[in-house]
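Quiz preparation item.
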Protein backbone atom coordinates (compact mmCIF):
# COMPACT_ATOMS: atom_id res chain seq x y z
CA UNK A 1 0.00 0.00 0.00
CA UNK A 2 1.20 3.52 -0.76
CA UNK A 3 2.07 5.89 2.10
CA UNK A 4 -0.82 7.26 4.11
CA UNK A 5 -1.92 10.86 3.56
CA UNK A 6 -0.65 13.16 6.33
CA UNK A 7 -2.67 15.76 8.21
CA UNK A 8 -1.57 19.00 9.90
CA UNK A 9 -4.33 20.12 12.26
CA UNK A 10 -6.36 17.51 14.13
CA UNK A 11 -10.13 17.20 13.75
CA UNK A 12 -12.33 17.44 16.82
CA UNK A 13 -13.71 13.89 16.79
CA UNK A 14 -16.92 13.39 18.72
CA UNK A 15 -18.00 9.81 19.27
CA UNK A 16 -21.58 8.89 20.08
CA UNK A 17 -24.01 6.12 20.91
CA UNK A 18 -25.57 2.81 19.89
CA UNK A 19 -25.51 1.61 16.27
CA UNK A 20 -23.80 4.72 14.96
CA UNK A 21 -21.00 4.26 17.53
CA UNK A 22 -20.42 0.73 16.23
CA UNK A 23 -20.38 2.00 12.62
CA UNK A 24 -18.16 4.97 13.54
CA UNK A 25 -15.36 2.64 14.63
CA UNK A 26 -15.80 0.46 11.52
CA UNK A 27 -15.75 3.42 9.11
CA UNK A 28 -12.47 4.56 10.65
CA UNK A 29 -10.94 1.10 10.71
CA UNK A 30 -11.88 0.05 7.18
CA UNK A 31 -12.09 3.27 5.19
CA UNK A 32 -9.93 5.94 6.79
CA UNK A 33 -7.06 4.63 8.90
CA UNK A 34 -5.56 2.48 6.09
CA UNK A 35 -5.27 5.61 3.91
CA UNK A 36 -4.89 8.60 6.23
CA UNK A 37 -2.49 9.22 9.10
CA UNK A 38 -5.49 10.47 11.03
CA UNK A 39 -5.07 13.19 13.63
CA UNK A 40 -7.99 13.84 15.96
CA UNK A 41 -8.74 15.20 19.41
CA UNK A 42 -11.20 12.59 20.64
CA UNK A 43 -14.27 13.31 22.79
CA UNK A 44 -16.49 10.49 23.98
CA UNK A 45 -20.06 11.74 24.03
CA UNK A 46 -21.60 8.37 24.79
CA UNK A 47 -24.47 8.82 27.21
CA UNK A 48 -22.45 6.95 29.87
CA UNK A 49 -19.54 9.37 29.59
CA UNK A 50 -21.79 12.43 29.49
CA UNK A 51 -23.29 11.14 32.73
CA UNK A 52 -19.88 10.41 34.26
CA UNK A 53 -18.57 13.90 33.45
CA UNK A 54 -21.74 15.75 34.43
CA UNK A 55 -22.04 16.63 30.71
CA UNK A 56 -18.76 18.59 30.90
CA UNK A 57 -17.44 16.52 27.96
CA UNK A 58 -20.08 18.02 25.66
CA UNK A 59 -18.96 21.55 26.45
CA UNK A 60 -15.31 20.52 26.00
CA UNK A 61 -16.16 19.01 22.61
CA UNK A 62 -17.85 22.21 21.45
CA UNK A 63 -14.82 24.22 22.59
CA UNK A 64 -12.52 21.84 20.70
CA UNK A 65 -14.48 22.43 17.50
CA UNK A 66 -14.12 26.15 18.06
CA UNK A 67 -10.40 25.85 18.77
CA UNK A 68 -9.55 23.49 15.90
CA UNK A 69 -12.01 24.85 13.34
CA UNK A 70 -13.43 21.55 12.13
CA UNK A 71 -15.29 18.80 13.97
CA UNK A 72 -16.88 15.51 13.00
CA UNK A 73 -19.67 14.11 15.16
CA UNK A 74 -21.36 10.75 15.55
CA UNK A 75 -25.06 10.58 16.47
CA UNK A 76 -25.84 10.78 20.18
CA UNK A 77 -28.81 9.88 22.33
CA UNK A 78 -30.91 12.76 23.54
CA UNK A 79 -31.85 11.45 26.96
CA UNK A 80 -35.52 11.21 27.90
CA UNK A 81 -37.32 9.48 30.74
CA UNK A 82 -36.99 6.02 29.13
CA UNK A 83 -33.24 6.52 28.59
CA UNK A 84 -32.81 7.73 32.16
CA UNK A 85 -34.04 4.39 33.40
CA UNK A 86 -32.22 2.37 30.69
CA UNK A 87 -28.83 4.00 31.45
CA UNK A 88 -29.40 4.62 35.20
CA UNK A 89 -28.74 8.34 34.81
CA UNK A 90 -28.83 10.78 37.72
CA UNK A 91 -29.93 13.65 35.53
CA UNK A 92 -31.45 14.38 32.13
CA UNK A 93 -28.82 16.42 30.31
CA UNK A 94 -29.93 18.50 27.32
CA UNK A 95 -29.46 17.30 23.75
CA UNK A 96 -25.70 17.40 22.97
CA UNK A 97 -26.51 18.90 19.59
CA UNK A 98 -28.45 21.70 21.26
CA UNK A 99 -25.55 22.33 23.69
CA UNK A 100 -22.98 22.38 20.88
CA UNK A 101 -25.15 24.58 18.65
CA UNK A 102 -25.78 26.98 21.51
CA UNK A 103 -22.01 27.37 21.98
CA UNK A 104 -21.10 27.61 18.29
CA UNK A 105 -24.29 29.40 17.11
CA UNK A 106 -24.71 29.00 13.39
CA UNK A 107 -26.69 27.34 10.66
CA UNK A 108 -27.07 23.67 9.80
CA UNK A 109 -27.11 22.79 6.08
CA UNK A 110 -28.65 19.44 5.21
CA UNK A 111 -28.25 18.09 1.72
CA UNK A 112 -29.48 14.78 0.32
CA UNK A 113 -26.88 12.48 -1.27
CA UNK A 114 -28.52 11.55 -4.58
CA UNK A 115 -27.98 8.15 -6.21
CA UNK A 116 -29.45 7.32 -9.61
CA UNK A 117 -30.86 3.96 -8.47
CA UNK A 118 -33.20 5.57 -5.92
CA UNK A 119 -35.79 8.04 -7.19
CA UNK A 120 -37.27 10.52 -4.69
CA UNK A 121 -40.88 9.83 -3.71
CA UNK A 122 -41.76 13.28 -5.02
CA UNK A 123 -41.66 12.60 -8.74
CA UNK A 124 -41.02 16.22 -9.77
CA UNK A 125 -37.76 16.48 -7.78
CA UNK A 126 -34.83 16.38 -10.19
CA UNK A 127 -32.19 18.06 -8.00
CA UNK A 128 -31.47 17.94 -4.26
CA UNK A 129 -33.21 20.41 -1.96
CA UNK A 130 -30.80 21.77 0.65
CA UNK A 131 -32.20 22.84 4.01
CA UNK A 132 -30.46 25.69 5.86
CA UNK A 133 -31.61 25.36 9.46
CA UNK A 134 -31.07 28.17 11.94
CA UNK A 135 -29.46 26.38 14.86
CA UNK A 136 -30.04 28.85 17.68
CA UNK A 137 -32.95 29.56 19.98
CA UNK A 138 -36.72 29.32 19.54
CA UNK A 139 -38.31 26.21 21.04
CA UNK A 140 -34.87 24.57 21.53
CA UNK A 141 -33.95 27.11 24.23
CA UNK A 142 -37.42 27.78 25.54
CA UNK A 143 -38.63 28.00 29.12
CA UNK A 144 -41.76 25.98 29.77
CA UNK A 145 -44.08 25.28 32.63
CA UNK A 146 -47.35 23.67 33.33
CA UNK A 147 -49.60 25.82 35.46
CA UNK A 148 -52.36 24.73 37.72
CA UNK A 149 -54.49 27.77 36.83
CA UNK A 150 -56.71 29.69 36.73
CA UNK A 151 -54.43 32.73 36.61
CA UNK A 152 -52.62 35.23 34.46
CA UNK A 153 -49.51 34.49 32.37
CA UNK A 154 -47.27 37.40 31.35
CA UNK A 155 -44.01 38.05 29.51
CA UNK A 156 -41.83 40.47 31.46
CA UNK A 157 -38.73 42.22 30.11
CA UNK A 158 -36.42 43.60 32.82
CA UNK A 159 -33.76 45.81 31.20
CA UNK A 160 -30.17 45.34 32.37
CA UNK A 161 -29.94 49.14 32.33
CA UNK A 162 -31.28 50.31 35.71
CA UNK A 163 -32.85 53.38 34.09
CA UNK A 164 -34.61 51.25 31.47
CA UNK A 165 -38.31 50.64 31.63
CA UNK A 166 -39.78 47.27 32.45
CA UNK A 167 -42.14 45.92 29.77
CA UNK A 168 -44.97 43.45 30.18
CA UNK A 169 -47.37 41.76 27.88
CA UNK A 170 -50.12 39.34 28.76
CA UNK A 171 -49.79 35.87 27.23
CA UNK A 172 -53.04 34.44 28.52
CA UNK A 173 -55.67 34.71 31.16
CA UNK A 174 -55.81 31.01 31.95
CA UNK A 175 -59.25 29.74 32.86
CA UNK A 176 -57.83 26.47 34.14
CA UNK A 177 -54.71 24.29 34.19
CA UNK A 178 -52.54 24.25 31.09
CA UNK A 179 -49.09 24.73 29.64
CA UNK A 180 -46.98 27.82 28.88
CA UNK A 181 -43.84 28.42 26.86
CA UNK A 182 -41.50 31.39 26.42
CA UNK A 183 -38.86 31.51 23.72
CA UNK A 184 -36.38 33.96 22.29
CA UNK A 185 -33.96 34.73 19.52
CA UNK A 186 -31.25 37.35 19.03
CA UNK A 187 -30.98 39.81 16.14
CA UNK A 188 -27.29 39.01 15.85
CA UNK A 189 -27.96 35.27 15.55
CA UNK A 190 -30.65 35.86 12.93
CA UNK A 191 -28.26 38.11 10.98
CA UNK A 192 -25.59 35.43 11.08
CA UNK A 193 -28.16 32.85 9.98
CA UNK A 194 -29.09 35.02 6.99
CA UNK A 195 -25.43 35.62 6.13
CA UNK A 196 -24.55 31.92 6.32
CA UNK A 197 -27.47 31.10 3.99
CA UNK A 198 -26.63 33.78 1.41
CA UNK A 199 -22.96 32.76 1.48
CA UNK A 200 -23.90 29.12 0.93
CA UNK A 201 -26.33 30.02 -1.87
CA UNK A 202 -23.79 32.20 -3.69
CA UNK A 203 -21.04 29.59 -3.21
CA UNK A 204 -23.23 26.76 -4.55
CA UNK A 205 -25.09 28.98 -7.06
CA UNK A 206 -28.45 27.91 -5.67
CA UNK A 207 -31.62 30.02 -5.53
CA UNK A 208 -32.50 30.77 -1.89
CA UNK A 209 -35.95 30.60 -0.33
CA UNK A 210 -36.73 31.81 3.16
CA UNK A 211 -40.01 31.08 4.89
CA UNK A 212 -41.67 31.96 8.18
CA UNK A 213 -45.14 32.69 9.55
CA UNK A 214 -44.95 36.47 9.76
CA UNK A 215 -48.67 36.92 9.08
CA UNK A 216 -49.49 35.32 12.43
CA UNK A 217 -46.28 36.02 14.36
CA UNK A 218 -45.93 39.63 13.31
CA UNK A 219 -43.21 40.58 15.80
CA UNK A 220 -41.22 37.36 16.21
CA UNK A 221 -41.31 35.88 12.71
CA UNK A 222 -41.70 39.40 11.34
CA UNK A 223 -38.25 40.20 12.74
CA UNK A 224 -36.74 37.20 10.91
CA UNK A 225 -38.29 38.33 7.62
CA UNK A 226 -37.12 41.91 8.14
CA UNK A 227 -33.54 40.92 8.97
CA UNK A 228 -33.28 38.52 6.03
CA UNK A 229 -34.48 41.28 3.71
CA UNK A 230 -32.00 43.79 5.20
CA UNK A 231 -29.02 41.44 4.93
CA UNK A 232 -29.94 40.67 1.34
CA UNK A 233 -30.32 44.33 0.36
CA UNK A 234 -27.25 45.64 2.19
CA UNK A 235 -24.72 42.80 1.90
CA UNK A 236 -25.62 40.27 -0.77
CA UNK A 237 -27.75 41.79 -3.51
CA UNK A 238 -24.82 42.45 -5.87
CA UNK A 239 -23.15 39.08 -5.21
CA UNK A 240 -26.44 37.27 -5.72
CA UNK A 241 -27.16 39.10 -8.96
CA UNK A 242 -23.65 38.39 -10.24
CA UNK A 243 -24.00 34.69 -9.37
CA UNK A 244 -27.52 34.53 -10.82
CA UNK A 245 -28.90 33.63 -7.39
CA UNK A 246 -32.51 34.69 -6.72
CA UNK A 247 -33.81 35.41 -3.21
CA UNK A 248 -37.44 34.55 -2.56
CA UNK A 249 -39.45 35.06 0.65
CA UNK A 250 -42.73 33.28 1.23
CA UNK A 251 -44.92 32.00 4.06
CA UNK A 252 -43.97 28.60 5.46
CA UNK A 253 -47.21 26.94 4.36
CA UNK A 254 -46.90 28.35 0.84
CA UNK A 255 -43.27 27.18 0.78
CA UNK A 256 -44.29 23.64 1.72
CA UNK A 257 -46.89 23.54 -1.06
CA UNK A 258 -44.37 24.84 -3.60
CA UNK A 259 -41.59 22.50 -2.48
CA UNK A 260 -43.58 19.36 -3.29
CA UNK A 261 -44.35 20.68 -6.77
CA UNK A 262 -40.83 21.96 -7.49
CA UNK A 263 -37.92 20.45 -9.42
CA UNK A 264 -35.64 21.01 -6.41
CA UNK A 265 -32.19 22.50 -6.77
CA UNK A 266 -32.48 25.32 -4.24
CA UNK A 267 -31.54 26.23 -0.68
CA UNK A 268 -34.52 26.46 1.66
CA UNK A 269 -33.61 28.61 4.67
CA UNK A 270 -35.75 27.52 7.61
CA UNK A 271 -36.26 28.65 11.17
CA UNK A 272 -34.99 26.18 13.76
CA UNK A 273 -38.13 24.07 14.21
CA UNK A 274 -39.17 24.21 10.54
CA UNK A 275 -35.67 23.07 9.59
CA UNK A 276 -35.77 20.21 12.09
CA UNK A 277 -39.02 18.90 10.66
CA UNK A 278 -38.52 19.73 6.99
CA UNK A 279 -35.06 18.20 6.78
CA UNK A 280 -36.52 14.86 7.90
CA UNK A 281 -39.29 15.25 5.32
CA UNK A 282 -36.74 15.97 2.58
CA UNK A 283 -34.50 13.10 3.75
CA UNK A 284 -37.40 10.66 3.94
CA UNK A 285 -38.78 11.66 0.54
CA UNK A 286 -35.31 11.60 -1.01
CA UNK A 287 -34.98 7.91 -0.11
CA UNK A 288 -33.36 7.24 3.25
CA UNK A 289 -32.44 9.18 6.37
CA UNK A 290 -28.97 7.70 5.86
CA UNK A 291 -28.56 9.54 2.54
CA UNK A 292 -28.37 13.02 4.02
CA UNK A 293 -25.32 15.04 5.00
CA UNK A 294 -25.37 17.72 7.63
CA UNK A 295 -22.92 20.51 8.42
CA UNK A 296 -23.10 23.22 11.06
CA UNK A 297 -21.52 26.44 9.81
CA UNK A 298 -20.81 28.86 12.62
CA UNK A 299 -20.46 32.63 12.12
CA UNK A 300 -16.95 32.42 13.58
CA UNK A 301 -16.05 30.24 10.59
CA UNK A 302 -15.98 26.80 12.19
CA UNK A 303 -17.59 23.68 10.78
CA UNK A 304 -19.13 20.60 12.37
CA UNK A 305 -19.97 17.65 10.10
CA UNK A 306 -22.43 14.95 11.17
CA UNK A 307 -25.03 12.49 9.91
CA UNK A 308 -28.58 13.83 9.87
CA UNK A 309 -30.03 10.66 11.44
CA UNK A 310 -30.01 9.41 15.02
CA UNK A 311 -28.35 6.45 16.71
CA UNK A 312 -30.64 3.91 14.98
CA UNK A 313 -31.70 2.37 18.26
CA UNK A 314 -33.86 -0.39 16.78
CA UNK A 315 -30.94 -1.74 14.75
CA UNK A 316 -28.72 -1.54 17.83
CA UNK A 317 -31.18 -3.66 19.80
CA UNK A 318 -30.93 -6.33 17.10
CA UNK A 319 -27.12 -5.96 16.97
CA UNK A 320 -26.94 -6.52 20.72
CA UNK A 321 -29.07 -9.62 20.33
CA UNK A 322 -26.33 -10.98 18.05
CA UNK A 323 -27.97 -10.23 14.68
CA UNK A 324 -26.21 -8.72 11.70
CA UNK A 325 -27.84 -5.42 10.84
CA UNK A 326 -28.13 -3.71 7.50
CA UNK A 327 -27.55 -0.18 8.77
CA UNK A 328 -26.41 2.30 6.15
CA UNK A 329 -23.16 4.10 7.14
CA UNK A 330 -23.25 6.53 4.15
CA UNK A 331 -24.11 9.66 6.13
CA UNK A 332 -21.36 8.85 8.65
CA UNK A 333 -18.88 8.32 5.81
CA UNK A 334 -19.88 11.66 4.27
CA UNK A 335 -19.51 13.36 7.66
CA UNK A 336 -15.90 12.17 7.70
CA UNK A 337 -15.24 13.13 4.07
CA UNK A 338 -16.81 16.56 4.61
CA UNK A 339 -14.58 17.18 7.64
CA UNK A 340 -11.42 15.85 5.98
CA UNK A 341 -12.07 17.88 2.81
CA UNK A 342 -12.57 21.06 4.87
CA UNK A 343 -9.34 20.34 6.81
CA UNK A 344 -7.59 19.78 3.45
CA UNK A 345 -8.86 23.13 2.17
CA UNK A 346 -7.89 25.05 5.34
CA UNK A 347 -4.47 23.42 5.69
CA UNK A 348 -3.64 23.30 1.97
CA UNK A 349 -3.33 19.48 1.67
CA UNK A 350 -4.66 18.58 -1.79
CA UNK A 351 -3.95 14.83 -1.30
CA UNK A 352 -6.31 14.82 1.67
CA UNK A 353 -9.03 16.53 -0.36
CA UNK A 354 -8.49 14.03 -3.17
CA UNK A 355 -8.81 11.15 -0.71
CA UNK A 356 -12.13 12.52 0.59
CA UNK A 357 -13.44 12.70 -3.00
CA UNK A 358 -12.25 9.15 -3.69
CA UNK A 359 -14.00 7.83 -0.60
CA UNK A 360 -17.26 9.56 -1.57
CA UNK A 361 -16.90 8.23 -5.11
CA UNK A 362 -16.30 4.68 -3.86
CA UNK A 363 -19.38 4.84 -1.60
CA UNK A 364 -21.61 6.10 -4.40
CA UNK A 365 -20.17 3.61 -6.91
CA UNK A 366 -20.93 0.72 -4.56
CA UNK A 367 -24.57 1.79 -4.32
CA UNK A 368 -24.93 2.56 -8.04
CA UNK A 369 -23.48 -0.87 -8.85
CA UNK A 370 -25.97 -2.69 -6.63
CA UNK A 371 -24.00 -3.10 -3.37
CA UNK A 372 -26.30 -1.44 -0.84
CA UNK A 373 -27.92 -1.77 2.57
CA UNK A 374 -31.57 -2.65 3.18
CA UNK A 375 -32.92 0.90 3.45
CA UNK A 376 -31.89 1.53 -0.18
CA UNK A 377 -32.42 -2.03 -1.47
CA UNK A 378 -36.13 -1.63 -0.67
CA UNK A 379 -36.35 1.38 -3.01
CA UNK A 380 -33.71 0.74 -5.67
CA UNK A 381 -34.49 0.20 -9.34
CA UNK A 382 -33.14 -2.19 -10.43
CA UNK A 383 -33.41 -4.02 -7.10
CA UNK A 384 -30.16 -5.67 -5.95
CA UNK A 385 -29.97 -9.48 -5.64
CA UNK A 386 -29.91 -9.04 -1.85
CA UNK A 387 -29.25 -6.23 0.62
CA UNK A 388 -25.81 -6.21 2.25
CA UNK A 389 -25.26 -6.02 5.97
CA UNK A 390 -23.26 -3.05 7.28
CA UNK A 391 -19.92 -4.91 7.30
CA UNK A 392 -20.42 -6.18 3.76
CA UNK A 393 -21.30 -2.70 2.55
CA UNK A 394 -18.19 -1.20 4.18
CA UNK A 395 -16.08 -3.95 2.57
CA UNK A 396 -17.71 -3.21 -0.79
CA UNK A 397 -16.71 0.45 -0.43
CA UNK A 398 -13.20 -0.48 0.75
CA UNK A 399 -12.69 -2.74 -2.32
CA UNK A 400 -13.54 0.18 -4.60
CA UNK A 401 -11.22 2.51 -2.70
P1 LIG B 1 -33.01 7.34 14.00
O1 LIG B 1 -31.85 6.85 14.74
O2 LIG B 1 -32.75 8.38 12.97
O3 LIG B 1 -33.72 6.09 13.32
C1 LIG B 1 -35.07 6.07 12.91
C2 LIG B 1 -35.28 5.01 11.83
O4 LIG B 1 -34.76 5.47 10.60
C3 LIG B 1 -34.55 3.72 12.11
O5 LIG B 1 -35.27 2.87 12.94
C4 LIG B 1 -34.37 3.18 10.70
O6 LIG B 1 -35.58 2.66 10.19
C5 LIG B 1 -34.10 4.44 9.91
N1 LIG B 1 -32.66 4.79 9.85
C6 LIG B 1 -32.03 5.86 10.41
N2 LIG B 1 -30.74 5.84 10.12
C7 LIG B 1 -30.51 4.75 9.37
C8 LIG B 1 -29.36 4.19 8.79
N3 LIG B 1 -28.15 4.77 8.92
N4 LIG B 1 -29.47 3.05 8.08
C9 LIG B 1 -30.67 2.44 7.94
N5 LIG B 1 -31.81 2.94 8.48
C10 LIG B 1 -31.73 4.08 9.20
O7 LIG B 1 -34.09 7.94 15.00
P2 LIG B 1 -34.65 7.34 16.38
O8 LIG B 1 -34.57 5.86 16.37
O9 LIG B 1 -35.91 8.02 16.57
O10 LIG B 1 -33.66 7.90 17.46
C11 LIG B 1 -32.69 7.09 18.12
C12 LIG B 1 -31.84 7.98 19.01
O11 LIG B 1 -31.13 8.91 18.22
C13 LIG B 1 -32.65 8.80 20.01
O12 LIG B 1 -32.12 8.59 21.30
C14 LIG B 1 -32.48 10.23 19.56
O13 LIG B 1 -32.38 11.08 20.68
C15 LIG B 1 -31.19 10.20 18.83
N6 LIG B 1 -31.04 11.22 17.74
C16 LIG B 1 -29.82 11.79 17.59
C17 LIG B 1 -29.57 12.66 16.58
C18 LIG B 1 -28.19 13.25 16.45
O14 LIG B 1 -27.33 13.03 17.28
N7 LIG B 1 -27.89 13.99 15.41
C19 LIG B 1 -30.57 12.96 15.65
C20 LIG B 1 -31.82 12.34 15.80
C21 LIG B 1 -32.03 11.45 16.85
P3 LIG B 1 -35.97 1.10 10.20
O15 LIG B 1 -36.06 0.72 11.63
O16 LIG B 1 -37.27 1.09 9.48
O17 LIG B 1 -34.90 0.35 9.50
MG1 LIG C 1 -35.42 16.23 13.06
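Solution:
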Amino acid sequence: MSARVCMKTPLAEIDGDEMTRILWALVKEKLILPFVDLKTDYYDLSLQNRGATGDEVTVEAARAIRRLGVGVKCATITANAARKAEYSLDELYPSPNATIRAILDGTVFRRPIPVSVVKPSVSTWKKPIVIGRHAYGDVYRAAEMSVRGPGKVELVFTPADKNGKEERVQVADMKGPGVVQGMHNLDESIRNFARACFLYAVDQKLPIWFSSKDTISKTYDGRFKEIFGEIYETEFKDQCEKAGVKYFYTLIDDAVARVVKSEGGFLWACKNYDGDVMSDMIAGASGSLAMMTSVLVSPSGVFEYEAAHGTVQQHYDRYRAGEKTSTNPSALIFAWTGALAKRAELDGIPELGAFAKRLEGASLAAIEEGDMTGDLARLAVPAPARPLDSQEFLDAVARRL
